[in-house]
Write a structure and sequence with these properties.
The complex is a heterodimer of chains A (114) and B (338). Chain A is mainly α and 114 residues long. Chain A has four helices and two strands. In chain A, helix 2 packs across helix 4. The radius of gyration of chain A is 14 Å and the shape is globular. In chain B, the strands form three sheets. Chain B has a five-stranded mixed sheet with strand order 3-2-1-5-8. In chain B, helix 2 runs antiparallel to helix 4. Chain B is elongated, with a radius of gyration of 27 Å. Chain B is α+β, with helices and mostly antiparallel strands and 338 residues long. In chain B, a hairpin with a 2-residue loop joins strand 1 and strand 2. The chains are: A mainly alpha (114), B alpha+beta (338). The interface between A and B is medium-sized, with 21 and 25 residues.
């Protein structure tokens, strides 16, 4: 019972154990919670992330394009999550207060979503 | 149940209980726990709670022991337990003395936390509204009043008086680490005294059900060294910063063009209304939407675009007609209002 309760607090389909790319998906998930990306996006595995301003990030690793504009490659995604307007001035997604390392972790988390 | 099975059952139950208790106790820390007081008033309340807890534990133990005695002790002892004398002592005299002492002690504690005496040098008006907190530092010296929201800054080491009212329904203010909780009642004024020993951020929330978003009506008390507090107050008195980048200037124009000033104030601009929170220095706050989200460009933009989805029924409409770039620009402008 207690185990179940505790297990429910983690949750999420993140397969960080199987992650062998750059960045740390678990750390990325903490960054996503801290700056509340979930205010605009549905993000599997992140509590309260049910925003509908931007697209849902379910199965993001399977996505071909980032925001319908850029190939979904790790380095591009790392730059996009930190400074989307530098790619697309019309985007509603602002520059976000995270470091480059944190951006890599966030990209790692998004690429762990299958 | 055979004896070995029973032993195992007891053993397992004991372990589960231990794990459960551990979890419960582990949940008692954090920035919003009455069991982790951060000032003299919080400490007096926590002390009262611990005395009651310890006293109740002792009394519970004694009652259980008496139950066993009434069941298994020699006849002579059991007879004595049934006498009028024993009933008068244990059933009348003891509760009267203990509960009276507790009442007097409790009233003394309450007097220090909710009384209008002991006013500090700082008095802050707090209005509970569905579902946020309007905070007004009325200094009474003809200076520009400082009005902010969802964040109460106080100097450390001195009692601060919160003058409480409500704009619509009954709310209740509660900062567990610093003070007791007190109702905020429309048409009446109540006062709560709180004091923080050290600088820090202490979470508080509404403790009286006040409508659909009651659970999302939180705030932060930020305790600062007295000098830092004075500097902060001086900064807050100044009008909103002028835009420093083209994006911020674009945001300022979009903010005014889309009618944000119909509900909000940014001193120094034509936005002068007071239905919603004063945004003159919104960029300096820790949270937006009454403690719901951290304050950054992303959350500001998301909140403006989708406030009704995020906190249904609150006074802020969702600005779904904004273009992406306008949204970013307004968020950049608001974030720059430090």
């Amino acid at each position: 019972m207690v185990l179940l309760t505790v297990a429910a607090c983690g949750g999420g389909p993140s397969s960080s154990a199987a992650w062998d790319g750059p960045g740390d998906p678990a750390a990325g998930k903490r960054v996503i919670s801290r700056i509340a990306c979930g205010i605009c996006h549905v993000i599997p595995g992140v509590a309260g992330a049910r925003g509908t301003v931007g697209p849902s990030l379910e199965g993001f690793a399977e996505r071909n394009l980032i925001a319908g504009r850029l190939p979904n490659e790790f380095e591009l995604l790392t730059r996009w999550v930190r400074d989307a307007p530098s790619f697309d001035p019309a985007t509603g997604m602002p520059e976000l207060p995270i470091s480059e390392d944190e951006a890599r972790d966030v990209a790692a988390y998004l690429h762990s979503l299958r | 149940m055979s004896p070995p099975t029973f032993t195992r059952f007891v053993d397992r139950a004991g372990r589960r209980l231990a794990v459960g208790l551990l979890l419960v106790v582990a949940g008692c820390g954090g920035d919003q726990s009455a069991l982790a007081p951060a000032g003299p008033i919080g400490l007096s309340i926590a002390t009262l709670a611990w005395i009651m807890f310890a006293g109740a534990a002792v009394i519970f133990g004694v009652v259980m022991a008496l139950t066993v005695i009434a069941w298994l002790a020699p006849l002579r002892v059991r007879r004595w337990l049934g006498t009028s004398r024993a009933v008068a002592i244990g059933g009348i005299a003891f509760p009267v003395v203990v509960l009276s002492a507790l009442l007097v002690y409790g009233l003394c504690v309450t007097r220090t936390t909710a009384g209008s005496e002991g006013t500090g040098p700082v008095s802050i008006n707090v209005v509970g509204e569905q579902w946020w907190w309007r905070v007004n530092y009325a200094q009474g010296d003809g200076a520009q009043p400082v009005i902010t929201a969802n964040e109460i800054r106080i100097p450390t080491g001195t009692p601060v008086r919160l003058v409480l009212t409500a704009a619509d329904v009954i709310h209740s203010i509660w900062i567990p680490r610093l003070a007791g909780k007190l109702d905020m009642i429309p048409g009446r004024t109540t006062t709560l005294v709180l004091e923080a020993a050290d600088p820090g951020v202490y979470r508080g929330q509404c403790a009286e059900y006040c409508g659909a978003q009651h659970a999302q009506m939180a705030f932060f008390v930020v305790a600062m060294e007295p000098q830092a507090f004075d500097d902060w107050l001086a900064t807050q008195r100044s009008p909103g910063r002028k835009p420093a980048t083209p994006l911020q200037e674009e945001g300022r124009q979009a903010f005014l063009r889309h009618g944000c000033g119909a509900c909000h104030t940014v001193r120094g601009t034509s936005a002068m209304e007071t239905l919603g929170p004063d945004l003159t220095h919104v960029g300096s706050r820790l949270s937006i939407a009454a403690g719901m989200f951290p304050n950054n460009a992303g959350t500001l933009a998301g909140w403006i675009a989708d406030a009704q989805h995020l906190k249904p029924g609150n006074g802020m409409p969702s600005f779904e007609m904004l273009r992406g770039q306008e949204l970013r620009a307004i968020a950049a402008y608001l974030g720059s209002l430090e």
